[in-house]
# Entry
Amino acid sequence: GAVVSQHPSWVICKSGTSVKIECRSLDFQATTMFWYRQFPKQSLMLMATSNEGSKATYEQGVEKDKFLINHASLTLSTLTVTSAHPEDSSFYICSARSVTHNQPQHFGDGTRLSIL
Amino acid sequence: DQQVKQNSPSLSVQEGRISILNCDYTNSMFDYFLWYKKYPAEGPTFLISISSIKDKNEDGRFTVFLNKSAKHLSLHIVPSQPGDSAVYFCAASGTYKYIFGTGTRLKVLA
# Structure
């Protein structure tokens, strides 16, 4: 099946650091990638939709200057958490969907971000 | 406003029996529904989907039922196996976005 690779899987860093997370679709072209955040025992909350070659669409309440998204190619999207603070600690998951209509999103394995 | 709800946070089932996970939604514009399985510290894995033109879709041990009039879908797993123990999320889509439920933790007892 479709494979989405997310890197790194775990990051621990100091407050004020910027952290970049990569999401790659390995065996299909993804015109659209999605970034989610999951708090413990809660649902996956969509943060933003990333379209190749254009600006990301952010959900209400998500700071676009805080969470920078770049989707430079059909197989790579990156999320940069800028000047991270402890409240940004969370599980971040990306997903990708192929160009075919009504194909499911396939998810990466997530990145656990811990800000000290 | 929770558009997709999974009212049972957890479910325990004996190995070999049927597991039934339920999901309710409020938006009649949703036309595509999915179930994902998730282990701790991993991303969700796609299980099965159904479009609104169908009321049933089956894939091996997994069957999804859709009742549009009740705005309800369910996932049946039969027979349940210990390896099925995980958190199951339903998701609904009407555009390109998925709206996820809060998940049901399934525990299959050996």
Remarks:
- Residues 70 and 78 of chain A are 5 Å apart (CA to CA).
